[in-house]
Design brief:
- With about 280 residues, the protein is α/β, with parallel strands linked by helices.
- The chain has a single domain (about 1-50, about 85-235, about 255-280), classed as TIM Barrel (Alpha-Beta Barrel).
- Helices cover about 40% and strands about 20% of the residues.
- The protein is built from 10 helices and 11 strands.
- Strands 5-1-2-6-7-8-9-10-11 form a 9-stranded mixed β-sheet. The chain has a two-stranded antiparallel ribbon with strand order 3-4.
- Strand 1 and strand 2 form a beta hairpin.
- The longest helix is centred in the first third of the chain and has 19 residues, at about 1-20.
- The protein is globular.
- The protein starts with a helix and ends with a strand.
- About 35% of the residues are buried.
- The structure holds iron/sulfur cluster.
- Iron/sulfur cluster (SF4) binds near residues 54 and 63.
- Iron/sulfur cluster (SF4) binds near residues 53, 112, 114 and 176.
- Belongs to the organic radical-activating enzymes family.
- One of its GO terms (molecular function) is oxidoreductase activity.
- Keywords: 4Fe-4S, Iron, Iron-sulfur, Metal-binding, Oxidoreductase, S-adenosyl-L-methionine, Transferase.
- InterPro entries: Aldolase_TIM (IPR013785), Organic_radical-activating (IPR034457), Organic_radical_activase (IPR012839), Radical_activat_CS (IPR001989), rSAM (IPR007197), rSAM_sf (IPR058240).
- Its cofactor is [4Fe-4S] cluster.
Length: about 280
Amino acid sequence: MKAVNKFVKKYAKHVLKMEAAAMDAPYVFNIQKFSTHDGPGIRTTIFFKGCPLHCDWCHNPESQRFEPEKMLDKDQHEQIMGRQYSIDELVRIMQADQIFYDQSGGGVTFSGGEVLAQNRVYVSELARRLQEIGISVAIDTCGAVPWSQFEAVLPYSDIFLYDLKFIDSQLHERYTGAPNILVLENLKRLSAAGAAIYLRLILLEGLNTTDEMLQRLQDWLQQEGIQLQEIDLLPYHDFGRDKYAQLGRVCTQHFKRPSDDQIAMIQQRLTATHANVQVGG
Ligand code: SF4
């Protein structure tokens, strides 16, 4: 509990800093159009910079720090990751592809980093403006933020892509830097609020794919009566490895992707309790 308090305190300081800056726009490090892995249909994904977690497998390490930073591209050219946009500017960019969202049942996904670790006044206003013009908003979150951040976007968001990395809090802390208490607590509250939740499970061979961990996960979901629209299984990949060197950091990843047979078994197992279990996002 001490660790959680320390974590919440550290995070709260960041929120206060952001709010003190009134409508300060968060930093965005990428806008990906025609995305098909960040929720239903064709989507535009906005990647906000800054995350309260530091997952060892993170394939977007440029998303972790809140401030802009230098990164080399594949031709060794330096670029600055992270720039600010006004809400009007982002709404205009999103609106340009509205026809594709409408035809495919898609929309806009706020991702990161962690979008709910950003200035909530800005984020909720952006979501509200998109909803106002008929664009559906999905929030991709690691859940490790105060509940008030969820409350701010709930009225304007249609879907939550909710990452649960480990049901075991010690493992969560060891590999992400923070325990999972906030993550589980927010998931319960989000489900109780009737939100459409797509639970996203990264699969790390031998860590969260063991019989024991899967059973604990299933038991917890059942005991808490968590209502899910879908479960997405996301097998680990190391596509982001090179980015660490491009940022001048050391990559310490040593994870393994489960075999296809294992992934199929996990899918089958979870299908016994949840109707819609997909591999991939
Ligand atoms: S929560 Fe996502 S963005 Fe944040 S460190 Fe973990 S993998 Fe990276």
